[in-house]
Amino acid sequence: MEADILITDTLLLPDPGNSTLIPSGCVAVHGEKIIYAGPMEHYNDRQAKRILDGRGMLTMPGLVNLHGHAPMTLFRGLADDLELADWLSNHIFPAETDHVNPEMVYWCSTLAAAEMILSGTTTTADGYFLETEVAHAFADAGLRAVVAQGIIDFPAPGVPDPKDNIEKAASFLDAWQGKNPLIKPALFAHSPYTCANTTLQKAKQLARRYNVQLYIHVAETEHEISMIQKPLGRTPIQHLQALGILDADTVCVHCVWADGRDMEILAGQGSPVVLCPQSNLKLVSGMADLPLMLAKGVRVGLGTDGCASNNSLDMFREMDVSAKVQKLHKLDPVAVPAKTILAMATTDGASISGFPGHAGVLAAGRPADIILLDVQQPHLAPFYTPDLLVYAASGADVRTVIINGRPVLEQGRLLSININKTLDRVRTMAIAVQ
User: Fold this and answer.
1) Are residues 346 and 224 part of one domain?
2) H or E stretch including 353?
3) Whether residues 270 and 202 fall in one domain
4) How many domains does the chain have?
5) 3-state SS class at 274
6) Which domain holds residue 298?
7) What is the CATH number of the domain that holds 159?
8) pLDDT tens per residue, the chain (434 residues)?
């Protein structure tokens, strides 16, 4: 079988989970799938429609960003250095009320897609309002994405009457389920303190009816703990368990204030957790106990959160911070090894995202989600082990990105997004925000 794309003579990291490097490797792609990934010497058919010279490059699976709010690129840097409640109630919610509309959501999500592709993310999970515009933006960009319609018990963009939130969410699922192989619709219940018990239960019932994931912010701040635990006598995670919300398709985001019992519940229900350490650091929400989560058997992935609270969508930056804060948090230099963090951003993240066949590895039969990094940079020399990807690499090192067999970035040039038009549209919108 002739390959459509053949990457040759590359330093190959096919499975970030085991850290084995192949010094002279190649990857062959036919259609949407990888047909070979391994040593060059074992691949005999050197013919291909396109050959990409991998010399000086590291080829690896694309990164998985499991939590973001793509339209919030418009609010990047708008309200920095604030506590979460103040930031959300006095700045972000009012800005959303005034400026979030379908046009804004589409173009700001396109900007987010460009930033993620440029920095090596090939799969993301997003949660916001007017999410059909996010889905259109990501589909146009060629980005693989879980796209989750927001549900909240307050007036929201596209849902001025909260009584319609479940109906609108169902319409979103109807519109997108099975329509695009790269877009997987889902639901996003904002949090246990912004959604009533009945809303959470209806959202989960809807998710089960459509067999989609439900994402939810939970146990993010100490204040949230006091709001729920004091009147109910149980933690936010125990509250979700009591409501019947938790299962393998409920993805819990943040979990900064999850205790050991909470983690046992999450592990027992198979509910994955997504950590967003930079957002938690910036908003001083706290730091999740990742070593304990892993010891309890919780499945864990990484996300950047939105640009308003990070302010970057660079997953290499997220990996670096994630590894280092855990060392400091536990006063243990081996609290969470770099290879574990790298797996969270690739293989583990791919598993949590739930795309059929997507395993965050480069292997025959797997979707061709591939990135090439320039490892001839001074800050990446010498390159002894993949740990350097966590501690020294940057999204700026990414040169080529292939998603589902389609090149979307080549030699640093975006192929699927008109970046100048996108920047112009977002900058025009930003004038009204200031």
Assistant:
1) yes
2) helix 347-353
3) yes
4) 2
5) strand
6) 63-353
7) 3.20.20.140
8) 899 999 999 999 999 988 899 999 999 999 999 999 999 999 988 789 999 999 999 999 999 999 999 999 999 998 898 877 888 889 888 888 889 999 999 999 999 999 999 999 999 999 999 999 999 999 999 999 999 999 999 999 999 999 999 999 999 999 999 999 999 999 999 999 999 999 999 999 999 999 999 999 999 999 999 899 888 889 999 999 999 999 999 999 999 999 999 999 999 999 999 999 999 999 999 999 999 999 999 999 999 999 999 999 999 999 999 999 999 989 999 999 999 999 999 999 999 999 999 999 999 999 999 999 999 999 999 999 999 999 999 999 999 999 999 999 999 999 999 999 999 999 999 999 97
Kindly state whether residues 312 and 385 are assigned to the same domain. Answer: no
Cis omega before residue 197 (within 30°)?
no
Domain termination residue (choose one: 322, 353, 384): 353
pTM for this entry: 0.97
